[in-house]
Design goal:
313 residues; mainly alpha; 3-stranded mixed β-sheet; 3% strand
């Protein structure tokens, strides 16, 4: 009979020995985290304060930025502590919590991007009916679906995971990876695998079909439009397309890296790839939307001017 051992902690073995440069990396990561918080809070504040930005497109951007803050907060505090710590051991409960937050962030990100694709499709392909289609009620429903679907999906995944008996507690990552943790199980993981495959198809395939359909229709309409209409379509769709491509590449790298493990990959590159999807999009998206969308840029400038006036000399 197999001797099953229960673990109450998990060792994150993906960290590399930085020696005397540990505090330098700590400072760099802290600066990056501070920049992410500042950029996203600035965009959220600009949209919330300015009533002219209370339109579907900007509300979707606002929710995207809220999700960026949610995702990065699940990683950075733990990352900062572990960078300067000799022990990279965390409790199993915290591992499950971090896993839940990071995976719901990843799913919600993709769902929000698909909702934004639908919004752009409606705006460009049905401009005269846009206000009738994208009502306040419909916007609330789309946002509620984007958030709730990701939380419901991973709640079931997590409930299956916590029932597993673990034979190991070492994960070759700097954060708690669901796939790698399930691989440590001694008990049968058939149900986990089936549900994982089902949710992957549903929550990647579903939003991807919406995105592809939306942009195929947008391209077909834009192709026949005037030069001015093409320029306007590019200005509104450009930032979203760049966000979509960036996030898609990030997730693809992460999924491939998780399956390959440490095979033929330098440690530094492995760590960078595993953190890319939670470091680059959360900083890149608010900066890009803030710079490329004139209304948001103006709103951000107004918020910064208001802050300067309130700051005592």
């Amino acid at each position: 009979m197999t001797n099953l051992t229960k673990f109450s902690t998990v060792v994150l073995a993906g960290y590399i020995d930085t020696g005397n440069t540990a505090y330098f990396y700590f400072a760099v990561i802290l600066l990056l985290y501070g920049s992410i918080i500042f950029a996203n809070v600035l965009v959220i504040s600009a949209i919330c304060v300015n009533s002219t930005l209370h339109e579907p497109m900007y509300l979707f951007v606002c929710n995207l930025c809220v999700n960026e803050l949610y995702g990065t907060t699940s990683l950075f505090p733990c990352l900062l502590v572990n960078v300067i710590s000799d022990s990279h051991e965390i409790s199993l409960v915290y591992c499950y919590l971090q896993m839940y937050c990071m995976y719901t962030y990843a799913t919600a990100e993709f769902c929000h991007l698909s909702v934004m694709s639908y919004d752009r499709y409606t705006s460009i392909c049905h401009p005269l009916q846009y206000n009738t289609i994208m009502t306040q009620r419909k916007v609330c429903i789309l946002l509620a679906l984007a958030w709730s679907s990701s939380f419901c999906q991973f709640t079931i995944t997590l409930s299956l995971n916590v029932q597993l008996e673990l034979c190991g507690n070492v994960i070759q990552k700097v954060w708690c990876d669901n796939y790698l943790l399930v691989r440590q199980a001694c008990s049968d993981t058939t149900m986990n695998s089936i549900f994982g495959l089902y949710t992957t198809v549903l929550f990647i395939g579903g939003p991807l079909l919406i995105i592809l359909y939306s942009y195929i229709r947008v391209i077909s309409v834009t192709f026949r439009a005037s030069r001015e209409a093409k320029r306007k379509s590019l200005s509104t769709c450009g930032p979203h397309l760049v966000s979509l491509l960036n996030y898609g590449i990030c997730c693809s790298f992460e999924m491939i890296q998780s399956r390959l493990g440490k095979a033929n990959m330098p440690d530094v590159l492995r760590v960078i790839i595993s953190l890319y999807f939670l470091m680059i999009p959360p900083l890149f998206n608010p900066v890009m939307y803030g710079l490329k969308m004139p209304m948001i840029r103006q709103g951000c400038l107004e918020i910064m001017k208001m802050t300067e006036k309130k700051t005592p000399l």
